[in-house]
Design brief:
270 residues, alpha/beta, 9-stranded mixed β-sheet, two-stranded antiparallel ribbon, globular
């Protein structure tokens, strides 16, 4: 069993759960297998739903800490709550609908020690078909990038299909490592973003702080995708995506790009 002494926690795993408890057991099992005997860690679950939904999880994993969030403020809000109570030097922000497939957790941690300029490490996300998950890492988000994407010219594919670690403009928040001190100094995730682009925004701010974003495909994580939305909520999922896209352009891109994206949003998702 991993040591849970307060003064010996190197890694804090934060899992924000909303109606995804049916995935959690396998997610937690996979983490403890990856960490056992290698990494000292704590696990914090921020539950954006009544506590009763995790009673079985707590019995199976009594060492985890569960924080009940009275209001579902979104992915970023939940992770910020977890980060503020975490004690580890490094955070692993992990989606509940994931399973860690690699035994290279120590290599990810070593990346931060060997390269102090590293601000974020993103995992190599794998689909259930054992393929690299699209949009698990990418290049700079811009209007030109959006146009090319819609034409089928995916510049970011050259990054997410890499087999060796490489620098990126952003990596997915599905299984993202970041030093806790840096995360808190930057204010964590922007809570104006309910879902989507909070990871892209965080990476943009970390790059502005002079740090590198590293995509680390050797650390493989199975991602089942969409666990908290489900098929019945595709409309809300799309609405959150386009709202966040527009906010990101308003915050990080030129006024002209923002104006064009605003028009496009109204045309394609009023």
């Amino acid at each position: 069993m991993i040591s849970q002494k307060e003064n010996n926690k190197k890694l804090s795993v934060i899992i924000v759960n909303y109606k995804s408890e049916h995935y959690l057991s396998r997610c937690l099992d996979s983490f403890y297998r990856a960490a056992e005997g290698r990494v000292s860690a704590e696990v914090i679950i921020v539950n954006n739903y009544p506590l009763e939904t995790l009673e079985g999880i707590k019995k199976t994993f009594p060492e985890i800490r569960i924080i009940v969030n009275a209001q579902n403020g979104g992915f970023g809000h939940g992770n910020n709550i977890g980060a503020r109570v975490a004690t580890g030097e490094l955070l692993l922000l992990l989606n509940p609908d994931t399973e860690i497939l690699s035994d290279s957790l120590t290599k990810v941690i070593a990346e931060f020690k060997l390269n102090p300029e590293t601000g974020v490490v993103g995992s190599g996300l794998i689909t259930e078909k054992q393929q690299a998950q699209p949009w698990s890492a990418g290049s700079e988000v811009s209007l030109w990038d959006l146009i090319k994407n819609n034409l089928g010219i995916l510049s970011s594919r050259l990054i997410w299909e890499k087999e060796k670690k490489t620098e990126a403009a952003w990596v997915s928040g599905t299984a993202l490592f970041v030093p806790r001190k840096l995360f808190l100094e930057l204010g964590g995730f922007d809570e104006n973003i309910f879902m989507y682009f909070e990871d892209v925004d965080l990476c943009a701010r970390i790059r502005m702080a002079g740090k590198r974003i590293v995509y680390f495909p050797e650390f493989r994580v199975l991602h089942k995708c969409g666990g908290s939305y489900g098929e019945k909520n595709k409309h809300n999922q799309n609405r959150h995506y386009y709202d966040s896209l527009l906010y990101y352009f308003q915050k990080h891109r030129s006024g002209l790009e923002f104006a064009v994206v605003k028009v496009l949003r109204k045309l394609f998702f009023a």
